[in-house]
Amino acid sequence: MSQPKIAVDLILKNLAESSEKSQERAKKASEVLLGPLETDLCPTPYDVVYEEDRVKLKYYKPETVKYKIPLLVVYALINRETMLDLQPGRSVVQSFLDRGLEVYMVDWGYPGRKDQYLTIDDHVNGYMDNMIDFIRKRHGLPKVHLMGICMGGVFCVIYSSLHPDKVQNLVTTVTPTNFDTDKGLLHIWMKSAAADRMSECYRNMPADLMNLGFLLLNPARLIIDKYVGFFENMDNRAFVENFIRMEKWIFDSPDVPGATFRQFITDCYKQNLLIKNRLEVGGKRVNLKNITMPLLNFYGKFDHLVPPEACELLTGEVGSKDKEDICLDTGHIGIYVSSKCQREFAPKIANWLATREADEGPDEGTKEGTKEGTEEKAASKKPARAPRSRGGKTDKAKSGKTGAKKAKPKKSAGSTRSRNTATDKK
């Protein structure tokens, strides 16, 4: 039997061509990496119209307003809201503006040592309630559209249950409400996490430690494969720019206030109180049946942080008759940045809100919700109501005027709000 012949000439030819291509790629990659790159986040212009402690409220105005009611977007305390305006062409915020929807977005800022005592109650019934009241007064409206993302979605669910009279429509995206699932390593880990000891040790939960934990959920893909992909595409300027933007977002992470972290892990991950209607916030029980406004619930089929099993029970527990689940074929972040989801996600929300605005209409018998009422309120430029325990600044603060007076801390049983004014030194 004759031995197979080895095509030496063909092998050498391929090696030569491969070497040539590698040299060309290396040269081009050098030009890309050493040349100017457009990697700035948040390309869409906005105004900061309200400030309170570390928290800011961003306002994005479309060229032509086509909706009666603005949308408030509440992001998670983990990572930053810049994900929704990451880059040109893939911006959820810009998609809303292109359709004429006014957008407000919460920037939670970076917690300091004095913020370690802030609870879920402080964020929901304090900061969120103050900002929603500010928006309602600014536009002369009784209610706002509310959209929550991940942990911010949990805050929005809680808020909508406790203050249903202030929410017109509710949108939740990748929002965990059922924590009794083993579909996802994060849920397994958090059930064993010593949240009390961690918050006591670190005060605020360090962002670097949480990022390490997220990377270890899928180390092969998030630590190795991702950078192999970068090496293979570093001669592609657009790929490099998008890669750097994403890296900036991932590692620009604030710490999480210790008391909030402890309460979220204990009450949600370990005891699953929210979906059972047994969670208490600010001394009041969060009953999902109080959520009677229309609800649109998004989640990702391949989300390893918040799997579908953690999201899909919400619509069955709320009191609303107008509710819808949408499962997209993507992961936790892809729902906001993938080109396919960009064509499905933001347009669906905008159309869904427009349909319900047309069906509901403004309140009758008052100026609230009318064009005249809105213009009259805007002309008066009255300051936002005084926060329960903090001083908030409206857009007047830019000219040196304070929008809201400093409120005296209110003491109540089981609350730590009176401790928020502590001035711990770093």
Description of the structure:
It is a single chain. By secondary structure, the chain is α/β, with parallel strands linked by helices. It has one domain: 3-Layer(aba) Sandwich (Rossmann fold). 42% of the residues lie in helices and 14% in strands. The chain has helices spanning 8-34, 92-98, 120-139, 151-162, 185-192, 195-202, 207-216, 219-232, 237-251, 258-270, 308-311, 314-317, 334-337, 339-360, 371-380; strands at residues 47-52, 55-60, 71-74, 85-87, 90-91, 103-107, 144-149, 167-173, 280-281, 284-285, 295-300, 323-328, 392-394. A nine-stranded mixed sheet has the order 12-11-8-7-3-6-2-1-13, sandwiched between helices. Strands 4-5 form a two-stranded antiparallel ribbon. It has a two-stranded antiparallel sheet with strand order 9-10. 40% of the residues are buried. Mean pLDDT is 84; it is low at 362-390 and 396-426.
| C-alpha Rg (nearest Å) | 24 Å
Shape: globular
Structural class: alpha/beta
What portion of the residues fall into strands of 2 or more residues?
5-15%
- Which blocks of ≥5 consecutive residues have pLDDT under 50? 362-390, 396-426
Mean pLDDT: 84
CATH class: Alpha Beta
CATH topology descriptor: Rossmann fold
How many separate helices? 15
